[in-house]
Amino acid sequence: MRAKPNSGCTGCGHQDHADVNAAKNILERTLQVATQTLDVLGENGHLTLRGAKALNWRAQPLRRNAPGCLGSCQCVVGCPTGAKQSVQLSVLPDACTAGARIITDAHVQHILTDPDRPGGPRAAGIAARRPDHTTFEILAPLVVAAAGALQTPPLLRRSGLGRHPRLGRNLAIHPATSVAGRFPAPVARGAAVLQSAGVEELHSDGILIEATAPPPGMSSFIPPGVGRELRTELENAAHLATLGAMIADRPGGLVLGSRHTLVRYTLGRRDGHRLMRAVKAMGELLLAAGAEEVLTGIAAAPRARTAAELADLLQNITPRQLHLSAFHPTGTAAMGADPQTAPVDPHGRLRGVQGVLVADASVLPSCPEVNPQLTIMATALAITEAATAST
Asked: What is the DSSP letter of 126?
């Protein structure tokens, strides 16, 4: 998690942003968000801070929801000490105390509605199926759709509630790429965390750079070569420090389908240029931190030993040649005051039916410039609290 105090919802038409900000404060306390301590930051994070200082760039340890972190660096596969505050530790116990019943291994087929209610159709519950193909229903006058930006639109379509022309449109993601630097001394030693330090220097341009310490299998696409050449590179992976950059894109993707989800996305020209700029910036930072060479992850320009050599290499590279990943999809059931452009109203209520709330990343109308976990959770909390207060 990367939390930022001013990363709340923007442009959504929400009538009271104070509700979201108050919810964020509650969640920060619940999740115990705090700046990562230096003792478990890891060499990768310290090198990033050193390189940023040499370039006079703004950088600092990240804020994380990991109290008591021991630096196991296994966040991506599950924290062995429970410090990462997964939902079974942070929010589900409160839900169970409040009377929630948790059902797992069940696929929601559709939302049930009563079409003959005064004032128009209203939610009546959900129909679900277990892995053994047995089915069951849960009856309720209020249904919260929180299947994420990629699955909420298909769920609503399967339920006959996907008639709004903008549902499934406006998909935004965080396109991302990575660069590694090879250092004389081992980097992978001692305690470390997966995401340790953030570089804010290019944040005003929608570019966020973070120090990462992924397991070798997750970063094996960065070293050049295949077969024996790649194996030789990976044998020396302990000397690599990895940086990742993600950008806030211009929403423009699509989520299609109802039974089977189809995602369409095209990287915009402006976003491609920003990714190229991010690759150059990450390489410069690693070299400033003392890297002997930079591994770009680009097959046509795999390595550089100086900033000048890196700049020359990248002049002939296009965004199509980058090895990209993507994170944090948002926007496909955007909240907004205008019923013509927003499938969901400013209070999280799905238009065209009563009793259906959408409370996940799909309601965010534009791409957040940081990891949106806290913003998503705060928005969902504000939506559901407002709905329960009015009943």
From this structure: E
pLDDT in tens, 34-70: 999 999 999 999 999 999 999 999 999 999 988 989 9
Category of 245 on φ-ψ map: left (φ > 0), alpha (ψ -120 to 50) or beta: beta
Please check the confidence at residue 180 and state whether its pLDDT lies above 70: yes
What is the average pLDDT score of the chain?
90
How far, in Å, CA of 77 to CA of 19, rounded? 34
b vs e for 261-271, b when ≥16 Cβ sit within 10 Å of the residue's Cβ?
Answer: eebebebeeeb
Whole-number Å distance between alpha carbons of 248 and 237: 30
SS (H, E, C) 319-359: HHHCCCEEEEEECCCCECCCCCCCCECCCCEECCCECEEEC
The C-alpha atoms of residue 239 and residue 358 are separated, in whole angstroms, by 46
Query: What's the count of helices (H) and strands (E) in the chain, helices before strands?
Result: 9, 17
Active-site residue, from 14, 239, 328, 347: 328
Q: Of the candidates 5, 10, 69, which has an alpha carbon nearest to the alpha carbon of residue 248?
A: 10
- Judge whether 69 and 40 are in contact, CB under 8 Å: yes
Longest pairwise C-alpha distance within the chain: 73
Tell me whether residue 323 is one of the annotated catalytic residues.
no
Query: Which two structure tokens, joined as six digits, stand for 382?
Result: 């504000």
Question: Where are any strands of DSSP class E within the chain?
Answer: 34-35, 59-61, 63-64, 107-114, 122-129, 135-139, 143-145, 172-182, 195-199, 207-212, 240-247, 254-256, 262-264, 293-295, 303-304, 325-330, 356-358
Hey, which residues does 344 pair with through a beta bridge?
335, 350
pLDDT of residue 1: 40
Whether 290 has a pLDDT exceeding 60, the answer reads: yes
Whether residue 371 has pLDDT greater than 80? yes
So what's the pLDDT on residue 3?
43
